[in-house]
Amino acid sequence: MKTSKHITPDELGFYGEFGGAYIPELLRPAIDELLTSFRSFCFTDAFRAEYLDLLKNYVGRPTPLYFAKNYAQKYGAKIYFKREDLCHTGAHKINNTIGQILLAKHMGKTEIIAETGAGQHGVATATVCALMGLKCIVYMGEKDMERQAPNVQRMQMLGAEVRPATCGSKTLKDATNEAIRHWINFPDSYYLIGSVVGPHPYPQMVAYFQSVISEEIQNQLHENGLKIPHKVIACVGGGSNAAGAFYHFYDLEETALIAVEAAGEGLKSGKSAATSILGSPGVLHGSLTLLMQDSNGQVAEPHSISAGLDYPGIGPMHANSISTGRTTSLSVTDQEALHAALECSRLEGIIPALESAHALAALPKLPFLKDEIVIVNLSGRGDKDMNTYQEAFKNL
Amino acid sequence: MNPFKKTEKSVSIFITAGYPNKTSLPEQIQLLQDQGIDFLEIGIPFSDPMADGPVIQEISSTALKNGMNLKLLFEQLSEIKEQIKIPLVLMGYLNPILQFGLTAFLEKCKSIGVSGLIIPDLSFELVQQKYLDYFRSFDVPLIYLITPATSDLRIAQIAHASSRSFIYLVGQNKITGSSYSLSVNSARYSEIKSLCGEVPLFLGFGISDASQKREAFSHADGVIIGSAYLKALSEQREKEFLENLLS
Hints:
The complex is a heterodimer. Chain A is an alpha/beta fold. Chain A folds into 2 domains: 15-54 and 93-206, Rossmann fold; 60-90 and 211-392, 3-Layer(aba) Sandwich (Rossmann fold), CATH 3.40.50.1100. Chain A has helices at 28-41, 45-59, 69-75, 93-106, 120-132, 142-147, 149-157, 172-185, 202-210, 212-223, 240-246, 275-278, 316-323, 334-348, 354-360, 386-392; strands at 14-15, 18-19, 65-67, 78-83, 111-116, 135-141, 161-165, 190-191, 231-235, 256-264, 280-284, 287-291, 327-333, 373-378. The model of chain A has no long low-confidence stretch (mean pLDDT 96). Chain B is an alpha/beta fold. Chain B has a single domain (10-246), classed as Alpha-Beta Barrel (TIM Barrel). Chain B has an 8-stranded parallel beta sheet. In chain B, helix 10 runs antiparallel to helix 11 (238-246). Classes of the chains: A alpha/beta, B alpha/beta. Chain A: Tetramer of two alpha and two beta chains.
C-alpha cells in the first residue's frame, strides 16, 4: 500500500483537514465491520489474484493508452487518452465494483445497495451482482432516471431493482441519502459506494480500487519509452476516475494534476456543480469536505448537464489536494462540454460520455509546451448520453 | 446536577423549529410545557437528514422553506427563555452548526440555558478525538445515541461521558418514524439499562403511542417521541395526540 499523504488518510480517515467518518451511531457497527474487513482482506495475495484476474478477463484490462494524433496536432502536445470507456459496461466504474463485490462476498453479504448518478455506477454494480449471484438495489434520482433512461433499462435487464429518489433535486445527492437510509434500516446489506466520497474507509477504498488506472498509465508510458506525464486531466464529480488517474502521480512533482469540474450554466449562474470554486468546508454523506452550501449550512442543489458530475460535494482526498495546491481545479460549462464531445467524435471517432467530455474541454484552456505528455482520462463512453446529444446537436 | 434525572418516568417530545410556521416555536413550547411534557427536543432543520424517515424529512424541508435557520431559532428561544421551565435539548446535524460556527453556537446554547445537545452525525470518537475542547470549554453536555447493536464496551464508555445528561437508546436500527415491536429487543434493553448505571436512559425512534410508551417505560427512564407527534401536528390533532399519550 502506498503511503503518500495524498492517498492515505490518518487513523480517523482524514486527509489533512478533510474526510473522517461523520456517521450516526446506527451505522457504526456496519462501518467498523467494513473497515476491519477491508484492511484484513483487500491487501492479501488471494484478493489481488482474483481481482486482477477479473479485471483482465472480465473487464478487459489493461485499457489502451491511445495516442490521439489529431488532438496532438490541434493542441500542440503529445495527447494520450486513457481509454476507460473501453471497460466492460462502458466506464471506469467497474474497477471499483469488482473490488468491492469481492469484499462483500468475503464478508458473507447477500444484498448489495448502491446509489447512482449517470447510471454508470449502477450498471457496474448490477453487473457484478449478476456475476456473483447477489441481490442488487440501486437508488437513482428521479431526474437522472429520465435523462439516463438507457442505463435504467440496462440495470433492470441485469436483474437489479432501481428505486427512484424523489426528494430534493432528485439527483445523485438524494439517491445517496436514500441509499444511506436503506443501509441504516438494513445494516446487514452491503453499501457499494461508487465514488471517493462517504465516510472513511470508502474514499480510501474506492481510490485504491481505481488506482489500477494510473498504474497502467505508468506501465504503458514506460513501454512506449516515455517516462512521466506532464499533465494528467480528469473530470471530478465525487472524483473516482480522477482519484484513479492521479493515484500514482501524487508524489511526482513534475506531473501537474488537473481536476475538471462542471460549471453547469456558469459559475455565477446559480446553476453549477463546481464544488472546489463555489464550495466551503462542510459535512455531507459522512465526510467533512468541500461542499456547495448556503450561509446557513443547507446543502445546495447543484446543476450540471452531466448526471455523473451533478453533485454538491467532492471526495475529501480531492478537497485536500486542491486546498494544498497539489491538484489544480478548472471548471467547464455545459456548452463547453457539449462542444468537446462533438470535437472528440469528429476528430478521433470516439463519442465520449458527458462526464469525460468535461475533461476534454479543459484542453483549449491549458497552455502546452511542445512535446509535453498529456493524459486525458476518458472515463466513459457516450452511448448513455445520446438523448442529450441528439437534443443539443439537432441542428447539425 | 443532572436535569434529566427524575424519580418518575419521563416523556419528551421532538419538534422541528420552523414548523408548521416560521414563528410556531414559542407557542409549541408553551403547549408542550403546559401539557406536562418533561423535557423538549428541538430539531434544527437540515436539507439532508440522513437518519430520518419520510415524516421528519418532509417537515425539515417545510421548515427550511418557511425560513427557519439557527440565527432565527436562537432569537426565538432568547425571547421566551424566561418562560421555559423544562429542560431543552437541541438536536441537529453537524453542518448547519459548523456554518454557524461551533464556538458561536455553543455560546448561544449556554446563554439560553440549553441542557443538552444531540448531533447525530458527530460520533463519540470524533468528539473525543477532535472536538472535546469546544464542548468542555462551553459546558454544554452532549447526548449520544446508542442502538441495541452498540457494543457493551462502547455503551460503558458513553455512559462514563454522560454523567450530566442522558443516553438516547434508538429502539431498533431503523431511521426515525419506523414501526417495530419493542419486545424483540427486550432482553438487550435490560442489559443496556444496567450498562448505563446511574445515567438516565431514554428510548426513542419509532415510539408512536401510549401503549408503546408504557412498554418502553419498562425498559428505560423515559421515551422520546418525534415523527408520531409531528404527524399529528401536521394533521392539526396535536392536542388530542398529547391527551391520549399522557393519559
